[in-house]
Write a structure and sequence with these properties.
This is F-box domain-containing protein. It holds the Pfam family F-box-like. The chain has a domain of 176 residues: Alpha-Beta Horseshoe (Leucine-rich repeat, LRR (right-handed beta-alpha superhelix)), CATH 3.80.10. Helices cover 31% and strands 17% of the residues.
Length: 471
């Protein structure tokens, strides 16, 4: 370790701080050299984590000041936990909790608000979270030369969502304070009413709600999405009510999404409303996937979209641009095989296919077939750009072996559902079973899951909690 150059050591420290925001302090206490490396490289101090209610206000300001000082002029990502179970539940006290308890910390963040690139808030209620936003931006200039630079805002509410009227959407003026906001993630948060210019530049929207929360009305989702013309990535993880929609809403122009992740019930209905011909990534998980006709309904909707969707410029149709497809938790019967086979045959740009506990596996045979009239074995397969296939929860080893023989360049992974064995399909006829080591090191089950999370981080949001390893 002592022979590593300082620049390489700082790179290692930066990766450590990615998984634990307090890593610079921990590493700086190891030795004098570690301290010098950590304090002389701003990249190590890119994430600041504060947990209010533990320690004095001066302690929090001192920690924040150290991060802003060592970060220099570089932007900073901030996580603040403002949950306080001892606080009273009246609306007045909640809306003024941050202002009354942390006046000096407010002044500090007002002075440095322009250096915060991403802000994650964990709060008991929406009122406290938005009171904090209002407080730290109260006296901030909004001139074009010095506008608020916050680009990413994540809010997680720890208390249960109360049952509310389906048409009720609270208005939080805090969302209009950040003109540069391009990423918004709401976890267990009441879906607010957002209108331009509040989210005019929003490109990433994630809505995550627990299964115990009231179903999210489809009408509210469509209204919110239609207010974000620049939206290209949408992630919804919630129960949804499949209520009939008026024709005026159905005719509303929605943004051209490039990435869509749905973990919902009423999946076919929701997919048909939100899908666009510009999609490049599609991730589908049906919360009611074990119902009798779940696979058939989804297959028919997919086939219908491929026949009917058109881009605005009419340069492509259907899902021709789709590069990544992931389907999970769908129960299929043999009668749906033909529909799924047709869908796979009409994905010319598909590069990655993930089927997680997906009942219909015979569609893999399509990937081994040569198109009629094609002699070139390299370009004659369906999905000629396919480079990765993942299958789990089903017994399909023979199909995967045959696919690997015919298309040896494919990276194929198979998980039969066991807790330890992960089976990469290698050269036929021999099948190598790669045993996962115990513990937390290289090749352990922990390491395997961590790498899988990193690969799918852009596709699926992970609910942050105060003990989350990323903070």
């Amino acid at each position: 370790m002592s022979s590593l150059p300082n620049e390489l050591l700082a790179e290692i420290f930066q990766y450590c701080s990615t998984y634990n925001a307090d890593a610079p302090l921990l590493l700086g206490s190891v030795s004098r050299r570690f301290r010098e490396v950590a304090h002389n490289h701003p990249s190590v101090w890119h994430k600041l984590r504060l947990r209010l209610g533990f320690g004095t206000e001066f302690t929090q300001i001192q920690k924040a000041g150290l991060w802003f000082k060592n970060r220099g002029a570089c932007p900073l990502n901030v996580f603040m936990n403002i949950t306080n179970t001892c606080a009273t539940r009246s609306a007045t006290s909640e809306s003024e909790w941050f202002t009354n308890n942390y006046p000096f910390l407010i002044a500090f963040f007002r002075k440095n608000i322009h250096r915060i690139h991403a802000l994650t808030l964990q709060s008991d209620t929406e009122l406290k979270a938005h009171d904090l936003l209002d407080a730290i931006t109260a006296t901030s200039p909004v001139s074009p030369t010095e506008s608020l630079q916050l680009h990413s805002l994540h809010i997680q509410i720890t208390t249960d969502i109360p049952p509310m009227p389906s048409g009720w959407s609270p208005v939080f003026e805090s969302f209009s304070l950040f003109p540069q906001l391009d990423s918004l993630k709401l976890i267990n948060h009441i879906l607010p009413a957002l209108t331009p210019p509040n989210i005019l530049h929003l490109q990433n929207l994630s809505i995550v709600r627990p299964l115990t929360a009231p179903p999210l009305p489809t009408l509210k989702i469509l209204r919110m999405i239609s207010s974000a013309p620049s939206l290209i990535h949408l992630d919804i993880d919630s129960r949804i009510s499949g209520q009939p929609l008026p024709n005026s809403i159905l005719e509303t122009e929605l943004p051209a999404l490039k990435s869509l992740s749905l973990r919902v019930n009423n999946l076919p209905f929701t997919l048909k409303l939100l899908a666009s011909a510009s999609l490049e990534k599609l991730r589908l998980t049906d919360l009611d996937g074990r119902r009798a006709r779940a696979g058939e309904e989804l297959a028919r909707v997919m086939e219908s979209l491929m026949r009917e969707l058109r881009t605005k410029d009419n340069r492509s149709s259907g899902l021709d641009l789709l590069k990544s497809l992931e389907i999970a938790g769908i129960h299929c019967v043999s009668s749906t095989d033909a529909h799924w086979d047709w869908c796979i045959r009409h994905l010319p740009r598909l590069e990655s296919l993930t089927l997680n506990k997906f009942g219909c596996v015979d569609l893999l045979k399509v990937l081994s077939e040569i198109k009629p009239g094609h002699l070139d074995i390299q370009t004659g397969f369906y999905c000629p750009r396919l480079s990765y296939v993942y299958l789990s929860g089903v017994d399909a080893l023979l199909l995967l072996q045959d696919l690997k023989v015919r298309r040896p360049s494919l990276r194929i992974e198979w998980d039969s559902g066991g807790p330890v064995w992960h089976r990469p399909v290698t050269d036929y006829p021999r099948t190598t079973l790669s045993y996962t080591a115990g513990g937390y090191g290289f090749a352990s089950l922990f390491d395997y899951d961590r790498r899988k999370i990193e690969d799918n981080r852009a596709m699926k949001g992970i609910s942050l909690n105060d003990e989350d390893s990323s903070w």
